[in-house]
Amino acid sequence: MIISIVDFKLFDCAEFHSQFRALEVTRHTLLTDKMSLHYFELPKLPKTVNADNGLELWLSLFNAETEEELKLIKDLEAPIMEQAISAYRHITAKDEFKEIERLYSLARHNEASALRHAAQVATEKADAKWKGVVADKDAALADKDAALAAALAELERLRAQ
Hints:
The chain is mainly α. The protein has a domain at 1-44. 61% of the residues lie in helices and 9% in strands. Strands 1-3-2 form a 3-stranded mixed beta sheet, with no helix packed on it. It is elongated, with a radius of gyration of 33 Å. The N and C termini lie far apart (94 Å).
């Protein structure tokens, strides 16, 4: 079983949970009931969480971004969620966690900067290449114009005789 919890809408449906299994292509027989892919799309979670639904509770915890959202989950008085939120707060209060978060943020910033720089370099190289192509075409056209002008001058000279 593979479980993917995604923070974006992946499938064109209203359900937040999608399950897939491997089928034979022409006969549509199930390969095995031991393998499945589960996708949970956090943006599709219901706005109000059912305190009796453990899956919705855990997914809401993963989806929580603010203290207010954590408080709403804690207010549902599900003991396991109170323990999970307490453990989360305990871990995130440690200096080691704060340093890891700082380094992770720095790494994301550095990656974005590197990608932006790579795109800029690629654009500059493409621009330079096309400028070279245009310059070559301009030079070829100038040569043809000069040859045409010479031919016209020769034609006028011959007509004048």
